[in-house]
Amino acid sequence: MKLKNNRISFYSTKNILVIILILISYTSCEEFVDLDLPPDLINTDKVFENEGSAQAAMRGIYAYSSSSSAITSMFKFVGLSSDELEKLSYNVEETMFATNVIASNSSTISNIWRGFYNIIYQCNNLVLNVSESTNLSEDTKNQLVGEAKFMRAFCYFYLTNLWGDVPLSLVVDYDVVRLLPRSSVAQIYAQIEEDLLDAQNKLSSDLYTTAGERIRANKWAATALLARVRLYQENWADAETQASAVINSGFYELESLTEAFFATSRESIIQLANSSVNRYTFVNLTGSTVAAPTYRLTSFIADNISSDDGRRAEWLTPTLNGVYKYKTYSNTRGPETTEATNILRLAEMYLIRAEARAQQDNVIGLNSAESDLNTIRSRAGLLGTTATTKVTMLQEIYTERTRELFGEWGHRWLDVKRTGQADAIFGANKTGWVSQAALYPIPFDDLERNPNL
After folding, report:
1. What is the per-residue pLDDT across 23-36, written as a single tens digit (0 to 9) for each?
2. CA–CA separation, 437 and 386 (whole Å)
3. Residue 235 to residues 12, 187, 226, 357: CA-CA distances in angstroms?
4. What are the sequence ranges of the domains in the chain?
5. Integer angstrom CA distances of residue 27 from 11, 19, 24
6. 309 close to 322: Cβ distance less than 8 angstroms
7. pTM of this prediction?
8. What is the C-alpha to C-alpha distance for residues 178 and 167, in angstroms, rounded to an integer?
9. Regarding the domain delimited by 1-203, which CATH topology (the fold level of the hierarchy) does it fall under?
10. What percent of the chain has pLDDT over 70?
11. Which end of the chain is more exposed for a tag (fewer CB within 10 A), N or C?
């Protein structure tokens, strides 16, 4: 729908979050009609002239993201696409991902694609309106634009790694957005880099707006995501530099395996907050019973986690190797603690730096790939690595990534693809694998609406 005069109601700080999300839903509808609104409404640009409501708009983006199927599907369906996750029984959608024969009319494919683009639209809308605001302070404008650009970069990172060439949308004009062609992976990464560098400059190094919670992006969140981007681009030197900046910032430390996914975890660089008073996340993979976990590791992955590895006891169910990193299924189940969805955490930074150092032939010794890898192994109760060459060290790092990052954000799927091993590994572990399955199909409805795709 198109809102005549583009106005929304301003009731209170408590309600503005819902109002802004409703506005965004209206302005991104597929069919456009004129709609008269009641006379007690104000122009949307006024929302971004007010400190409280502008902050609420940013909180609205995080709130939408925390329950968006684009986010929740990353853990489940992308895990099924790789050789990482399996189930005792599958529905039609799950079967498509597990067998890597995904129809373009898959509702899950559509939900992930549109979910990410919906977040991007909201970020574009905020960047535009905040940048043009004349009442907000420069500090506030920098913070909000920096956060929005971090989230936009985050979404584009997954879009291009799941689909390859995708439309690059930086505006809110429907007539422009609806006919965008696909941009190359290189163009998408260039925009991701630009957004993250700008976010680094704009965001505070120590800003966490709610005491004890790390639910909004700061400079280190942008730096951590940039470290990952540099790794994927094989810019080893800068991947090491960016990861080191986060590790040495003094804001983060590895937690015990038990507390790594708590809302209070000092390992978390940025999390998605739970909605309302919920103690649980939307990405619990175990299900309602530990004895019969909904999602479990395949034997190929589980067999790499030895009995003396603390992650087996802490992060897997006692039976069937169920993924048990997030343990609280609902408000009435689980430990008396609050969990929050980790977007980025410190352990990944050590693994990024280890890989970057190994690629630069800094394999063993002080401040090397060996020392970083052993930091992660030690937390899991394992002895130090025995790898001494670049080839064996890199293989150890890849294996350690599967042990440390399983069940999170489709890391296994992306790692195997970015290292050029998809055909060799998935071909050996998945029946009927074909190279084309490494990229998801663009949703059929979008292909029909946009001939430029």
Report:
1. 444 344 443 333 34
2. 35
3. 47, 16, 11, 11
4. 1-203
5. 20, 12, 5
6. no
7. 0.90
8. 10
9. 1.25.40
10. 86
11. N
